[in-house]
Write a structure and sequence with these properties.
The complex is a heterotrimer. By secondary structure, chain A is of the alpha+beta class. Helix content of chain A is 39%, strand content 29%. By secondary structure, chain B is an alpha/beta fold. In chain B, a hairpin with a 2-residue loop joins strand 1 and strand 2. In chain B, helix 1 packs parallel to helix 2. Chain C contains twelve helices and five strands. In chain C, a hairpin with a 2-residue loop joins strand 1 and strand 2. Chain C is elongated and about 95 Å long. The relative contact order of chain C is 0.08. The chains are: A alpha+beta, B alpha/beta, C alpha/beta. At the A-B interface, helix 1, helix 2 and helix 4 of A face helix 2 and helix 3 of B. The complex binds adenosine-5'-diphosphate and magnesium ion.
Chain lengths: 134, 117, 298
């Protein structure tokens, strides 16, 4: 059964659980091993951003299906401080956390659809979709 | 839950074999253990086997890079062993790399590299 | 909740588009239906003169195998003509027109011949309308224009189908070529040679990446020579793929050497920002193998 999963993300253990869940769902949907790794990596990056920058949030991972293709959708949502400059945050190497600054831009590179919404003071929602065979 | 990575000592070489997926905290714990072990046995090399990992994201990559840099400051070498094909590809696409850190296919390969050096 | 960027679905020409782009309305269909009473006879005359006209040309004539084939095509043509005048503009009509486009593509009728024929046909038809409606030139004019719209829509449908059928054919052929497995040869313990020949498009470059990385895993390779002597040119996307594959191979512990770069390939690599230091390259296969062996032993 392909079913959606909603998880609370507030510790580094949750990050591990989220990417394992994502990999499992991706496998069930029929993604190649290479794509499963990409999806798990993207989830890991988004979940860590929640823990590091917003303390806690939720992640929903679900299979998606249209007439012609199937894939996985991940929504990462938090109610933290939000991102002041989204454009900067999406650039390679930008980090306010003293880290590599590749989480958001890297994730964007490896998925097919990427949507980020943020209201400063209210939080961040990132939605990504990856389709099979693209 | 914390996962403790076994670290073997052999002729001045530290061999850390990651057995399962690690949380960020586990990786940080590994970092400090390796560094204190390098100092305490005055290791000449550190070999980190990551073949059990099926994700190496920006945090893991950065921490391993930090370990290698600190080890280098002690005059020792670091070799990262066993990155899986899917993991390697995901890293490259994400923009991650182990610049200036030696990599090896398996432990045999790593020891050959150490012998050659 | 943010909106997920929705995926675009490729639209096929539809009845709505007929109305939108070609300005075809029910009024047009009604105008044209005035020709219904004479359409049979008109069709016969038109089609006979049309085929008499094209059979005089070798390129056109070669499409007909024999007399009975020609007769069959003529009958189809008459039905096609009758439909233009009488059939309602619905999905079935569109389907039928698309089928005609496919037949033309399969028969390798060129767009020039197809549109040329349609144009010949239209002018004769216009003439006929003018002749038979001498007493009402206004109406004749309106009918001729309505016919023109419908004919243009027909042509668009047929050409759209023609193009997509042609694309399918080309893609199928490319896929065939790109699915040719690239051999992974073991030169000695730990050293692989991958000779890449033929066109290297993004699709095949991706397959090559997997073969390279899987090859390393399977053979426990420590070095790989990627010989692209047989590749004429690559675009920047493919150049990027190559670089990424080699970077991934390095992460797995295998050194890779790129040999046989043509001037064009070298240029593409430079364009995506590659320098000689970042990439191991060698002029020919022989020196590539020497370099790879050296790198392999640290
Ligand atoms: N959920 C979030 N809440 C607030 N700020 C965020 C969030 N996610 C990312 N950011 C901001 O975007 C920057 C870039 O993020 P990322 O690309 O993941 O790199 P890194 O985490 O290494 O800094 C972060 O440094 C931070 O300023
Ligand atoms: Mg991050």
């Amino acid at each position: 059964m392909n079913s959606a999963s909603i998880q609370t993300i507030r510790s580094d253990g949750d990050i591990v659980v989220a990417r394992q869940t994502g990999r499992k769902i991706a496998e069930d949907v029929g993604f190649s091993r290479a794509d499963q790794a990409l999806i798990a990596t993207a989830i890991s990056e988004l979940a860590r951003n929640i823990v590091v920058y917003a303390n806690s949030g939720e992640m929903e991972i679900s299979p998606v299906e249209t007439v012609s293709r199937s894939g996985v959708r991940v929504t990462a949502q938090d109610y933290g401080p939000g991102i002041l400059d989204i454009k900067a945050a999406l650039a390679d190497g930008f980090s306010t956390g003293g880290s590599l600054g590749l989480g958001l831009p890297g994730t964007r590179r490896i998925v097919d659809e990427f949507d980020i919404q943020s209201v400063p003071g209210e939080g961040v929602t990132v939605t990504i979709v990856k389709w099979i065979g693209r | 839950m914390t996962r403790r990575v076994p670290i073997l000592r052999q002729n001045g070489i530290l061999i850390a074999s990651i057995q399962e997926e690690l949380s960020d905290g586990d990786i940080l714990a590994l970092q400090s253990r390796i560094l204190s072990d390098v100092v305490s046995i005055n290791a000449k090399a550190v070999v980190i086997d990551v073949s059990a990992l099926d994700v190496l994201d920006s945090f893991g990559t950065r921490t391993l890079t930090e370990i290698a840099s600190s080890v280098e400051l002690r005059g020792a070498r670091t070799i990262i062993v066993g990155i899986q094909p899917e993991v390697a590809m995901a890293m490259v696409l994400l923009g991650l790399d182990f610049r200036n850190i030696a990599t090896a296919f398996d432990l045999d390969h790593a020891f050959d590299l150490l012998r050659a050096a | 909740m943010p909106q997920v960027i929705s995926s675009s679905v490729t639209a096929e020409p539809s009845v709505d588009e007929a109305a939108l782009y070609f300005d075809i309305s029910q009024a047009d269909k009604e105008l044209v239906s005035h020709l219904e009473s004479t359409s049979d006879e008109m069709g016969d005359i038109l089609i006979e003169s049309f085929y008499a006209h094209i059979m005089g040309h070798e390129e056109a004539a070669q499409h007909f195998r024999d007399e009975s084939h020609l007769e069959r095509v003529k009958r189809g043509q008459k039905r096609y003509f009758a439909d233009l005048i009488t059939a309602p503009l619905d999905d079935a009509y569109i389907e039928d027109r698309r089928r005609i486009g496919q037949i033309h593509e399969r028969a390798r009728v060129s767009p020039t011949l197809y549109i040329g024929a349609y144009s010949y046909y239209l002018t004769r038809l216009g003439d006929h309308v003018r002749q038979t409606m001498k007493d009402d030139p206004e109406q004749a004019f309106a009918i001729a224009f309505a016919l023109m719209k419908l004919a243009h829509f027909d042509m668009a449908l047929a050409l759209e189908t023609f193009v997509s059928a042609r694309e399918d054919t080309i893609q199928a052929r490319e896929r065939e070529i790109s699915e040719l497995p690239t051999p992974v040869l073991k030169l000695q313990d730990g050293l692989l040679l991958i000779p890449v020949v033929g066109t290297l498009d993004s699709f095949r470059a991706r397959a090559l990446t997997l073969q390279l990385l899987e090859g390393i895993r399977e053979h426990r390779a420590r070095a790989v020579v990627l010989d692209i002597t047989g590749v004429a040119a690559v675009d920047s996307a493919v150049a990027n793929h190559l670089i990424q594959s080699m970077a991934a191979a390095r992460l797995m512990g295998a050194q890779s050497v790129l040999t046989g770069l043509s001037a064009e390939v070298a240029q593409s690599l430079v364009k995506v920002g590659v320098t000689g230091e970042a990439l191991n390259t060698a002029g020919d296969l022989q020196s590539g193998i020497v370099l790879a062996t050296k790198l392999m032993h640290g």
